[in-house]
# Entry
Amino acid sequence: MAKLVTASWDQRSKHGRWPKRLQQGRFAALMLPALLLGACVAPSAAPASPSSTVLPLAATATTSPTPKPTSTSTPVPTATPVVSPHGDTLVYNIGSEPASIDPARDRDTTEDFVDVQLNATLVIPDANLNMKPGLAASWDLSPDGLTYTFHLRPDLKWSDGSPLTASDFVYSFTRLFRPPVASPYTHFISGIVGAHAYATSTSTDPAELAALRAAVGVTAPNDSTLVIRLVQPEAFFLSTLADALAAPVKRSNVQQYGAQAFQAPHEVGSGPFILKSWAHHSSMELVPNASYYGGPPAIDLKLEMIGETSATLAAYRGNTIDTDGAVGLTAADMATVRADTQLRNDLFSYTELGTYFLQYDVAQPPFDRALVRRALSYAIDREALVRTALAGEGDPAASLVPPGMPGHLPGLGQTYDLNKAKALLALAGYPGGHGLPTNLVASYNNLPAWTRVMQFMRTEFSAVGLTIQLNPLDSASYFSAMRQHPSPMFRSGWLSDYPDPNDWYGLFVTGGTQNVGQWSNARYDDLVRQAAQDLNQAERMRLYNQAAQILMSDPPASWWYYPRRYRLVKPWVRGMVTTGMDGGLPGKYFIKDVTIAFG
# Structure
C-alpha cells in the first residue's frame, strides 16, 4: 500500500524511466497500469509465461540489464548453494515489526505487505495493475455509474473453513468508519453513500448511530451478492477496492478475541496464507491457506524483521534470508554487491509508482508567493541530486505523476535552469536572494538518504541566495509535527495506493487529508473533482492535463525524483513478479505464486 511515504526505502519504511523491467530473466517487474471502468467482468486470462526453463516467471516483461560494476576491486565470490537450505519456505525480510495486521488499520507498507498475504479483496491487481476478479467472480456497474453489484465466487471460505458471505463485507466496510477502528485511510471509499455522515457523527446515542450505520450504502441482498452505492460517479472507485483496508474481517472472530483476533493463533483471513506464529520484533511464520479461493500456495513464508542494512546483507550472504526485501542497499553496499561475482547476479532493479518531493507550507512567507516556489523548483539540478545524493537509485522527476501512471505528462514540468530561478526570484522582489528570510527551517526524518538529499538542497538553494536550516527529526516525531505544525519546507513523497491519477492529483485538493502544506487552488479543485466523476477516460486525461498545468504555474512542491529499487533475491526463488505498487517490498501481490528450488 502506498500510503504516505514514511521513510527512505533505502533504509526501510512505508509507498525511472518506465519501460517494464526484468532482471536476468527470473524476476518480473511489470507496470503500466490501465484503468478498468467497464461492467460484467469475468476472470481474465493468466499472463503468458516466458520460455525460460531455469527460473520460470509468472509473466513477461522487457529486460533491463543490471548496471556494470563501478568498483575496480577484485571480486570476492560468495558461495551460494544451488538449492534452498530452507526447503519449501521463502525467507523474506520485511525489515520491521508491523504495528497491526488488522486490515482496517493498514497504514504503512510493512503492514500492507503482511495484510495482502493474509487477506483477499473483491478485486485484485494483475501484473500490469489492471483490476481483475478476486473474491468477486464478476460485477456490474449501473448506467449512471452510482451502483456496483458484486457477485461473489461460489463457496468462499474463511481460513478456518467457515463460509464467507456478502454480510461479512457489510460488517467490514462499516467497521472502517467508527472508533475504535476509524481507519485513517477511509478517504479512499468515503464516496460511499452515508459513509461520511457515519464517520463524522459526534452522536453518542446508540439508536442514532445504528441508523447512520444502516444508511451506509453497502448492502447484502443475499449471501453471494454485495451492492455498493456511491454518492456520485467515481471513475477510480473499483481500483480502491484492491487496497487491503477493503478486505473483509470475520465478525465473530473480532467480537470473541478483540485485538487478539489479529494475533496467532486466532487470526482468520481470506488470503493465500495463514498466520502460524508471531515472535514479535523478530519474525512471523505463515503457512498456506487450504481454503484460499485460488488454491493454496506451494510454499511456506517466513518474514524476518532485520532493519539494519549491514545486518541484512550479512544475513543474505549467510543464506539466512532469501531476499533483502524491505531493506534496500546503500551506495556502499551497491559497490560491494557489484564487485561480487555471485551477488551481482542476484541483483535486480524495478521502478515504482512513486514521487519524492520538497513540500512548502504556503501559509508561511515567502512560500505564500507562487513565484518563489517556482523559482526554487528551477534551482534544483535533479540529475545531480539522483547521481550524487542517491547513487543513481532513481530518475529525475519533473512533475507530480510518475511515468507509467495515466495522467503522467512527459516533457511537462520543472527542470533545472539557474538563470530562470534567479530571474523569478527577482520578479518576486528578491533580487539575488536579498530580502528572503534567513535560516528558513527545512524538516525531514533523519534517515541517511534524506540527510544526503536535504544537504544537497541546502547547497542548491544557496546558489540563489536562500539559506535554510536543516531540522532532522526521528520519523515518529517528524510525521506528527508536519501534520500539526508543518515547517516552511519539508521532505515529502507519495507511493500509489491505487492505480489511478486521482490518487495523485487528489493529494493537493483544498482541505485534503494529505495536503498538509495548505495549498489551495479553486480551479484545480474543480478540475480534479470533474475528472474523478467522468467515466470517459479521454476526457479525464484532458482535465488532468489542465490540472498539471496549474501545478506548473502555482506549484505546491518541488518534485525531486521517481524511485528505483535495487534488491537481492536468491537464485532458487522462482516466479516472483513485482509491480509499481509494491511499496518497497518486491513481489507483494504475487508471493503466493512463488516456488522454491530445494533438494
